[in-house]
Design a protein that fits this description.
about 475 residues; Serine Threonine Protein Phosphatase 5, Tetratricopeptide repeat; about 0% strand; globular; 24 helices
Length: about 475
Amino acid sequence: MASKSKKSLTGSEATIWEKELEINRLIEESSIHLTEGDLGRSLELAKEAGKKERSYLSYLQSNSLLHDGALQMTFATWFHLALVYEKNEMYQEAIQAYTYLVKQKKFQKNIGVVRVQLGNIYYIQRSYDDAIQMYRMAADTFGPENKEKCRTISAKMGHAYARQGKFVTAIHHYENASRSSQDLSSIFNLLICHAILGNTQEVKKIFVKMLNSAVKGFVQSTYQRYHKSSSDIDTIIVKDPLEEYLDQKMQKLTTLIFTAAHIVLLSINNLSTTDDTFAWMQNQLKEHFPQIAVKVELNHAIFCLYSQDYDRGLRLLKSFEKKDQESLAMAAVNLSTIFFLEKNYYKSNFYADMALKQSRFNVNALVNKGNLILEQGDLETARDFYLEALSVNSACPEAIYNLGLVYTRLKQDEDALVTFEKLHHVSPNDPPVIYQVASIYERQIQWTMAMKWYNLLYTRIPVDGTMMMKLDQLAERMADEK
């Protein structure tokens, strides 16, 4: 029917065409709102599509016009509605919609996808046995010929078993998921399971496997291009969508490998043995991932400091002075932070200046410098450093928060309010930020707004008795004014 033009359709055909067009339009609009994050409107449209689909199906049945396209329309409508329910966290409604599709024998061709979705919901609800059952049934539906789908399902089963603490079984499924594929996430999860079980040698073997898979799965020249461009802030680079995708993929890869390296080191309890493992790890990383090797070395230095081996940790950090500028800047920032926390402001300032000398666009170094100047009481200069940090990275939470504090101490409450509310938008559950906003409204004698924000703060820290006292005081002041 879709192949015909509307003008050539008459009677019932035209009615069917219009009904199908309306259902498709509603599903499409619902999908657009879903991708834009407007979950409520997406659900309204999905429900409306469901109503239209039932009317459409009733019309077909009453006129003996049922056809294969109608089945596809029914499946698409119900599956979309279930998906929107799921995105709205209305899991019971989503389960009911998915279960309806499972029970319909006419939809058996697509039943595997539906069972996977059901398994995902059960997993979210921590009903791991039910999730595993659904995943297993989905795998049986797909069959061994759909290797990629079966590997994905095997990884999901590994997650469920790991959540149950059944790490040996989880290892089996992660091994299946990572066999003959470049699935770094499954290899990473496999490494975690072996680390939990204390299988140190297996952890090291899997780490090597992870590196080899990363090299095979990602073009090395792209890795080098990424680091070259990302370190050159003075060069304005206009990236096309493919480059942005590759950058995101590279960032994810870097984070995964770095975290895996950290887990390998933490799986070794003895510090001297950790040094040997660290040297082995550097040899593994330096050929294909030199930038990650530098970060791991910096992380190892911090690990030594946490282990109270200060001489070794500081010696490692100071060794970065002989390395390239980027490595030196990272080490200098960390040394500046450490000495600041120890209240050794002279050394902290020395390393902050060193980091800024290597790169004036080092956000963390700018924040550290601002903190040092703030400690000296020079509010205006500290403000300028925080603003400079935000000009490099407008989402730096430390710079935003400290700038808000400076505005508060300068008695520029309006600027402070805008700053803290901006940070609250990024981090809505941070009690110190909520407190700052509430206290500004209180100073401005805006009791209603102050009460609103203190109430919000109380929901974040309900065990804090001082919040109850503060709310009582504000209630009394509001009553007195009335």
